[in-house]
Write a structure and sequence with these properties.
single chain, alpha+beta, 2 helices, 4 strands
């Protein structure tokens, strides 16, 4: 079996959320490989989270894990592909 790459867009609750702390908490989730800033507007920055996991395990519930982190406003699944 191969591996799966998943991209998710994480939007903080407000512009006052400390992105550095939020990124550190997201990076603690197993499978997270990279986080990029994506400016939205009005001082708000979304985080593009890139994850990789084994195909045979099935998709772990990354969305729920990220939503449970303090300061996260919303989580949207993005691209998913086999690598």
């Amino acid at each position: 079996m191969g591996q799966v790459a998943l991209t998710m867009r994480v939007t903080p609750e407000s512009p006052e959320v400390d992105l550095k702390v939020l990124k550190e908490k997201i990076m603690e989730i197993e499978g997270v490989k990279q986080i990029n800033d994506k400016p939205i507007g009005f001082g708000l920055v979304a985080l593009e989270v890139f994850m990789v996991f084994d195909d045979k395990e099935g998709a772990p519930d990354f969305e729920e894990k990220i939503k449970s982190i303090e300061g996260v406003g919303s989580v949207e699944s993005g691209d998913i592909t086999l690598i």
